[in-house]
């Protein structure tokens, strides 16, 4: 009985504490799902995907940071397959803890690669920075087409960053952390690709405008209108428009995407009907596509008035329905061998596939990655090209059917083709000339990038490249490589007392003297300020390097005539010798700098060699 009584009391105790335990367990699970693992940076990373380190919480858009901190339960983003929240009307908060193990202060770029985000806020230490396509460019934290924020970390520093994001469209919050150099390269290459894509669309518009002016066919006018409207939508979707075309449009920037894409759906459906001539060949499909055209017209106007999220969802749904309608129409047209219908079907399949993938991604039914995000870009590019071929095939077929009765028209067409070929030849020639000009400009820029602008000597980048080759040559020859660090004595007084222009004139004179007395194989560079570096190969001994350095001292100490006055400077030279290919430039410069500083401590204007520390 005592045992049963004990068990009853135990069950009673468990029953009484079970609700509390469940609450604690749920809270623990909510917290455990959060990403408490900080991102620790070593300073050498080029790109870091942030999802494994991010926690998120979904809150009302009007909730402030202080309000939601008190009640938010964070969920680890690593528990999700992606950070696409679909058409989300609430705000999504992200939390990222990042720290630095680098030896020096490092600068980073935090990048959200989805251009159509409306608003992203970075909350840190009471400061709020803004990004997004509805934020005027002048108010954005960084002037990029995507939401981008700068991050600066001192050695050992840890920061907790909070991001608040919301959008009327698909809320995709995939994020990356880049080093500044890597992000600059990435931004340059992606902007070039998107510019090439938009340039291709506009090139097709221009080409077909020429054809329209010659042929006066309605199909070409509709094709040009369709590509122009689609190009406007593409500029909005890729962020090129909000960045370069309408940077201060603010909230109206959000309306351009649905308006342009709905307008392209309206014109594109009319283009398909005109291309196939449904009124003549397929009356039933003509009536069905007529309903689709009215739906597109109504949605195009409504996209400027109704709530934006409703316009975007309606656009996606109508786009999928219209895609099915046109696909059925084109399949039947291809079966009837209507001129150009098969190529049109292939072109439409490309766009439908890309748009369908993007729509499914926007609803969160497909993961967000490079292929799903840019599926419509790829599909539309192929579609525009194939539609141009379809127009040409259609025109050719009609011309062939009327060949017997329209000999003069065929002659005019041949003349038109010849004119187009001449234009193509001229265009190719211009492209070749432009390519040569760009190559020459690139070569000039590369040379300027390796040169110190004040003295004309090589800069640090060129010095690093030269030393790497010089050390390998020295290793093969088994002689010495001398790195001489030359620091001017008394230059600061000249710069302070006589002014920077006089100081610059002295530096140019010193550079000219170094070039004049250096051997043909010697390499001279300016590190900055009044420090110069001489790299001398084929050194057989320390005495030979000492002799060359003393020769430089004698020449540099000669008076410098500045017109109305004359000045003199001395120099302290630190030398390090190596015959190995292993040390890098930084180590050699540190050794030479150590020798130069030793020279200055023992009395300026002289030469010292680097001595390896003992003991």
Short structural description:
The protein is α+β, with helices and mostly antiparallel strands. The chain has helices at residues 2-33, 65-69, 180-215, 218-238, 240-245, 252-276, 278-281, 283-302, 308-335, 341-362, 370-373, 375-401, 407-449, 460-477, 491-498, 500-517, 542-556, 585-601; strands spanning 39-41, 47-49, 54-59, 75-76, 91-100, 106-111, 119-124, 127-131, 148-153, 158-166, 176-179, 480-489, 523-528, 531-539, 560-561, 566-567, 570-578, 606-609. Helix content is 57%, strand content 17%.
Task: Describe the overall structure.
This protein is an alpha+beta fold. Helices cover 57% and strands 17% of the residues. The protein has 18 helices and 18 strands. The chain has helices spanning 2-33, 65-69, 180-215, 218-238, 240-245, 252-276, 278-281, 283-302, 308-335, 341-362, 370-373, 375-401, 407-449, 460-477, 491-498, 500-517, 542-556, 585-601, and strands spanning 39-41, 47-49, 54-59, 75-76, 91-100, 106-111, 119-124, 127-131, 148-153, 158-166, 176-179, 480-489, 523-528, 531-539, 560-561, 566-567, 570-578, 606-609. The strands form four sheets. Strands 1, 3, 4, 5, 7, 8 and 10 form a seven-stranded mixed sheet that branches. α15 (491-498) runs antiparallel to α16 (500-517). The longest helix has 43 residues, at 407-449. The chain is elongated and about 100 Å long.
């Amino acid at each position: 009985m005592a045992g049963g009584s004990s068990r009853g009391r135990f069950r009673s105790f468990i029953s009484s504490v079970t609700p509390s335990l469940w609450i604690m367990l749920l809270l623990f699970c909510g917290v455990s799902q959060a990403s408490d693992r900080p991102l620790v940076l070593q300073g050498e990373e080029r790109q870091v995907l942030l999802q494994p380190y991010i926690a998120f919480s979904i809150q009302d858009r009007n909730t402030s940071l202080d309000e939601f901190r008190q009640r938010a339960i964070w969920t680890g983003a690593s528990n999700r397959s992606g950070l696409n929240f679909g058409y989300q009307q609430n705000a999504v908060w992200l939390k990222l803890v990042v720290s630095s193990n680098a030896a020096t202060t490092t600068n980073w770029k935090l990048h959200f690669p989805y251009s159509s985000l409306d608003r992203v806020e970075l909350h840190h230490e009471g400061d709020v920075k803004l990004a997004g396509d509805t934020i005027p460019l002048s108010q954005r934290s960084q002037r990029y087409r995507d939401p981008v924020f700068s991050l600066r970390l001192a050695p050992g520093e840890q920061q907790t960053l909070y991001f608040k994001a919301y959008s009327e469209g698909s809320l995709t919050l995939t994020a990356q952390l880049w080093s500044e150099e890597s992000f600059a390269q990435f931004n340059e290459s992606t902007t070039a690709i998107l510019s090439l894509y938009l340039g291709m669309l506009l090139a097709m518009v221009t080409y077909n405008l020429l054809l329209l002016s010659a042929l006066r066919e309605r199909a070409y006018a509709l094709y040009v209108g369709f590509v122009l409207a689609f190009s406007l939508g593409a500029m909005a979707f890729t962020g090129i428009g909000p960045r370069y075309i309408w940077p201060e449009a603010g909230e109206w920037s959000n309306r351009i995407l649905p308006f342009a894409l709905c307008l392209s759906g309206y014109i594109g459906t009319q283009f398909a009907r005109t291309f196939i001539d449904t009124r003549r060949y397929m009356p039933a499909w003509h009536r069905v596509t007529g309903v689709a055209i009215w739906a597109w017209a109504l949605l195009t106007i409504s996209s400027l008035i109704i709530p934006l999220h409703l316009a975007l969802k309606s656009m996606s749904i109508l786009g999928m329905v219209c895609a099915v309608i046109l696909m059925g129409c084109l399949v039947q047209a291809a079966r009837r061998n209507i001129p150009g219908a098969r190529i049109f079907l292939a072109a439409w399949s490309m766009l439908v596939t890309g748009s369908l993938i993007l729509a499914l991604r926007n609803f969160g039914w497909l993961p967000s990655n490079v292929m799903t995000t840019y599926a419509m870009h790829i599909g539309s590019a192929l579609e525009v090209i194939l539609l141009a071929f379809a127009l040409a095939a259609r025109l050719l077929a009609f011309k062939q059917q009327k060949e017997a009765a329209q000999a003069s028209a065929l002659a005019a067409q041949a003349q038109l083709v010849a004119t187009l070929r001449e234009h193509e030849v001229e265009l190719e020639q211009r492209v070749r000339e432009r390519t040569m000009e760009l190559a020459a400009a690139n070569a000039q820029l590369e040379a300027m990038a390796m040169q110190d602008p004040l003295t004309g000597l090589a800069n640090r980048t060129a010095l690093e490249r030269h030393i790497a080759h010089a050390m390998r040559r020295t290793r093969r020859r088994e002689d010495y490589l001398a790195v001489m660090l030359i620091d001017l004595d008394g230059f600061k007084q000249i710069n302070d007392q006589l002014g920077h222009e006089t100081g610059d004139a002295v530096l140019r004179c010193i550079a000219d003297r170094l070039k004049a007395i250096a051997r043909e194989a010697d390499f001279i560079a300016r590190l900055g300020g009044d420090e110069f570096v001489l790299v001398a190969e084929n050194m057989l001994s320390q005495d030979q390097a000492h002799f060359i350095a003393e020769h430089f001292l004698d020449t540099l100490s000669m008076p410098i005539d500045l017109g109305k006055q004359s000045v003199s400077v001395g120099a302290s030279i630190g030398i390090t010798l190596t015959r190995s290919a292993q040390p890098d430039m930084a180590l050699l410069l540190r050794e030479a700098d150590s020798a130069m500083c030793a020279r200055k401590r023992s009395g300026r204007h002289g030469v010292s060699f680097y001595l390896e520390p003992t003991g």
